[in-house]
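Running log. JK asked me to keep both predictions on one page so they can be read side by side. First protein, sequence followed by its tokens:
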Amino acid sequence: MPKSYYILILFLLAAFTVRAQKPVETKGYPVIIGRDTLFTFYTGQGLFEPAERAQVVTKRIEELVNRIDFNPDSLTLKNDTSISVISYNSQIILAVNNKDATFTELNRPQLAASYLVILKKKLGNYFSDSSTKQVVINILEAVAVVILLVILIWALNKGSRWVKLKTLKAWENRMDKLAAQGAPVAYAKRLLPVVTGLLRIGRFILIILLVYMALPVLFFIFPSSKPIAVQLLGYIVNPFKSIVLAIVHYIPNLLTIAVIYIVTRYIVKLVKFIANEIALGAITLSGFYPEWAMPTYNIIRVLLFAFMFVVIFPYLPGSDSKVFQGVTVFLGILFSLGSSSAISNMVSGIVLTYMRPYKIGDRIKVGDVIGDVVEKNLLVTRLRTIKNEDITIPNATILSGHTTNYSTVAKTMGLILNTTITIGYDVPWQTVHNLLISAAEATDGVLTEHKPFVLQTGLNDFNVAYQLNAYTALSNQMAVLYSRLHQNIQDKFNEAGVEIMSPNYFALRDGNHIQIPDGYVPEGYKKPGFKVDK
């Protein structure tokens, strides 16, 4: 075999051996900050794959350089037996393991030290891009932002003036219409400065917002002021972010509150339906009066909503905070101390509801006040007198005293009107009885099915007291009925020639003219003279 043939075989064997020993190429994942690759990871770390590890380290470094107080010299390196850690003020930035060193000619501590040098150098230069081209570009961008801000403020001023003119025109048209209808416009004119002032305040707030939003854009253009831009944006973004997150986290509690409220509301509707049916008489309960239905419903409704609030309270935001609980206790004490009389009236109102001493429309007497009941609630009762005077009486006052109801049995048994006159002993009592009864029967509003009657209530020194009693169903017209009754008594007694000399006769009576109107004096009557016996 030729010598050249052996040489070729040896060359091919050597080439194959070298190819077989060449390691398999591994894909690396770079950490890029500001379009500059700092280093590349070929292996994972802990639970992170190489790609995830590069993303996490990149994010940490970006957050680090965005801090307004960042100082590259505060980066430190700590070598352990199996890992090297680079941190910034106790915050871990990245970790270097032994596998990372197999892809370089350095050992692990040396590789970690080189990473620390790269971070200090690159991040130190991150804020100092001072190339002329970049500076010019940054300045032009800042000028463009300022010009845009000026244009927006100008447009906002123009728009606010247009809105103000439209508002003034609409306001003037409205004033003209009101004046044409004869309505007073002085109050509306006084409101106009308030409206224009609100428009000015709104424009001022919008200008402040535009300027504030432009500042982060300007600071973000220049690398050295990017942390300030991030800080300014954080003042706006972070509160909204916190609000949105709080709302999202509160959704389960909100759903619970909604379910409790809906269930309570439908229970209240059911109770109201039953109460209405009882009040209308469609449902009857033994011992439960129809007029109790709506007051009972109101009490049950208050109790149900109070119970609902007790159940919902733990789900309210901040209900577990000491401040919220302290304020709640303070309000409870304040309410208790300041509403003792109100609570007394409320309890009295509930008691009066179930005592049923009166109802709306009844003519009652409370103390010295007589009037018709026009309103009754848990706190007070309002009466309207015959003079159209509305008098408010606390329920506690009514409960602590006595109440006279003139309307309770007026429709069934009849209310007895009574009045007393005194007549001399010279008139037969039968005549007086007949005259009084005929006067009652002649009065409109007096019941005919119940015959009037007379009681002799006193035998006085000079006269007899007669009390006339007549039935009526019109308890709300007592004053008018008494007036008619007195008129008829006068007419009947005058027609019969009987004098009403209340309260007393005088001893010297024979020399005086008879005390009845001239139209009723008998024809030929002469005033008697005084008779004096010698």
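And the second, directly underneath as requested:
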Amino acid sequence: MALFLARSGHRVTVLYTGAAAIDYMDVWPKRCISAGVSLIHLDARRGEMHPVLLRETCVIFEHLRTRDDDLVLFQDWEGPAFSSIVAKRTGLAFAQTVLGIFAHGPTAWLLGANQMLVRDQRTLAQLHTEGEAFSGADVVVSPSRYMLDWLRTSGQVLPPNSTALPLYLWSDPEDIAQVDPSGLSSVNTLAFFGRLETRKGVDLFLEAILSEQLTGSDFDVVFLGKPASHTPDMIRGIVGQRRPDLLPRISFETDLDTDGAQRFLRESGALAVIPSLTDNAPCVISECLRKGIPFLSTLSGGIPELISAVDVERVLVEPRPASLAKRLASLLGQPFAPAQAAYHEPEVARSWLSWLDGLPRPRRTPVSDAKAERRHEDRIAVIVTHYERPVLLNQALEALAAQTYTDFDLILVDDGSPSLEAERGLAAAENRLWPFRLKVMRETNRYLGAARNAGLRSTDAERLIFMDDDNLAFPDLVETLDRAMTMSQADIVTCQMALFRNPLHPADPAELLTTDRWGFLGGPLELGLSINCFGDATGIYRREVFEGIGPFHEEHGVGFEDWHLHARAALAGFKTVSLPVPLFWYRRLPTGMSVSTNLFANTAKIWRAYADQLPPGLQRLVDLSVRNALTGDLA
């Protein structure tokens, strides 16, 4: 597709995020370069971004936001588009760029196809990032109607501009010259073509070739694909138990690239067997159609959409061992011609070019309009909690005074600081002229949750931002959170945290290039049972959230007030979005609450919030679900 679009006059870039370096002497990089396609290797492992699952999507977003593309088309699997799409929905970037998803094999579909269940935190996170990317994209394109129908039936929200377009069947003159329309003069070798995994039909293929229907038949077998759920030794073991006479006639080609596998099939005279249990629009089918390679496949998923109606019955069978064995038995020793594609290259080319021409063209927003978008009728209150840290409090207030948007109330809640130094700091803050409206509250010491709730009760502002006195807001924190809430219509907006460890002094802005960052997914609800995937307390909240679920918990000596609130909000159906950028410095100290309080007591508070949603006889299911909560795989 990249080659075709570049040759059609488009400026095309392929952004590769794999670990291995690009081999520019390999055939595909050479083809791309010759066609004017730009290849960029973006090392998505760089940077100290936590949790690790967010690292790739954040690195991709940070690179793409520096570009000026009309369209970015993302792969669906593992959600690489997630951060970029959240950024667009919240007004951070891509106002003039169309963000699209290529729906080919999302995790939710793969789980069902491989007959697997969700077994870890990483998969829950992946399901969330992919689902949010689909629903938030400007466009979705898939190589089959089947996949779009499956997504909708499964409950996935898709944008109105969702289209099925076949893969572009690119051919060069060398391909066309080598295509033999007559195909095989006699089928004598069967080549399983695809990854050696259950979904691709390796078990189905083995059952067929080892069945009684093929006993006594004369044929060779080659497995042409990389090991996955099955390895060559496993396959040899299965064959050796049921039909040892076939072992000498079995071979494996597991290291061939795409071109090498196609070359092998053309030169060996083997019949490619592609017995997928379920599939979308397998690349191997398109490759066989393009190269004129004879193949036999199954009536599953989107495969029939790729093949000409005149050939469907001849080259496709039901994905059952008996059906496949019967068809193979009838083909052995017989000639077999390649199938024809349902679409011809010129037709597919016109479809793709027409689709590109019809994409929505975002309006170039004048600067004056962009500023107007940041004006809101909803009043904002920033609630800062403080206890016995007057030096740090002053730094926090200075950071808030430097905001690009200062039309807010600042409510400073002192949680019963006993020292004279703390009282002097509060008095100095009261007597100083600030760009925001300051109100100081002196409360008795009742812990962090109670202090936040006191500030919450003292204001009727519609939008509420919480800050702790040891953290430092970036200059655009208030403006960015406010705009993100308006544009996304979320109930809660959180953001990444930039970590620093200086106990007395502010962070050096230069540290932002190298420091650790901690980000959040904003969900899903299931993952929030075992890790805080929602966000820190520092974020912006609609008042309706607290009216719906109540305030922060006030249990003395127990932390995770923010996680507990976020979890209850999610359980109540409120929507959280977490921005893929840091908006404040989070001071990590060895005396912090997350370190000084009991971890089990803290997390038990979260578990109880979930258990309370279940009937009494099912509440212990929460215990089973969080057995890995303290050593989860997303740290």
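Observation for JK regarding the second prediction: Residues 366-372 have pLDDT under 50 and may be disordered.
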